[in-house]
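PROTEIN DESIGN WORKSHEET
SECTION A - STRUCTURE
LENGTH: 189
TOKENS:
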């Protein structure tokens, strides 16, 4: 099974951004959101997934709404809800600690990226009981056209004078192996 380079890069960056974390102190923390600060690149026509984790105090929030939105007109954030364009998945786990903290992971998958998906995105979490809101930083998503994405090939001589051709496979393989190693290492900690 070979992975495309965009899938390998996605796995690598998601691996780096998903190390387990818990709130540093349960005092005064009702809700907080975390996700990668790295800009994200995708190719037109391909899927792309963003992940946001919200940690919250279950006793104070009771329930929580976590969602991704697109920054529009510099101040308004439009939630990504169109089921024809986005697939949304939610996972929830309990975090051990002094009080009852939970973590809700919100995944939004662009089913087929378009050039119009280029923009700044943000994750928000809202406690439904207290209406306490946590907003993450803006993340830059850049979508490139398919014609801009090209395979880079080079040729070189082997010891016996035959030409060899190499492509992105070694980079994809290296990123995949690195991602697997980091995932295994982070779960042992």
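SECTION B - SEQUENCE
RESIDUE ASSIGNMENT:
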């Amino acid at each position: 099974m070979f992975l495309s380079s965009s899938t390998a890069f996605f796995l690598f960056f998601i691996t780096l951004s998903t190390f387990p974390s818990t709130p540093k102190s349960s005092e005064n923390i009702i809700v907080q959101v975390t996700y990668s600060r790295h800009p994200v690149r995708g190719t037109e026509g391909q899927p792309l997934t963003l992940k946001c984790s919200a940690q919250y105090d279950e006793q104070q929030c009771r329930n929580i709404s976590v969602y991704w939105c697109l920054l529009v007109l510099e101040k308004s954030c439009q939630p990504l809800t169109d089921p024809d364009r986005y697939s949304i998945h939610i996972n929830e786990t309990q975090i051990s600690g002094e009080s009852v903290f939970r973590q809700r992971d919100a995944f939004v998958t662009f089913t087929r990226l378009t050039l119009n998906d280029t923009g700044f995105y943000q994750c928000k979490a809202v406690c439904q009981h207290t209406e306490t809101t946590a907003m993450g930083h803006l993340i830059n998503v850049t979508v490139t056209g398919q014609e801009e994405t090209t395979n880079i090939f080079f040729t070189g001589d082997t010891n016996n004078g035959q030409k060899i051709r190499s492509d992105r496979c070694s980079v994809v393989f290296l990123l995949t192996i690195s991602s697997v190693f980091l995932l295994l290492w982070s779960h042992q900690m």
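SECTION C - NOTES
The CA atoms of residues 7 and 128 lie 35 Å apart.
Residues 5-145 form a domain with the Immunoglobulin-like fold (CATH 2.60.40.10).
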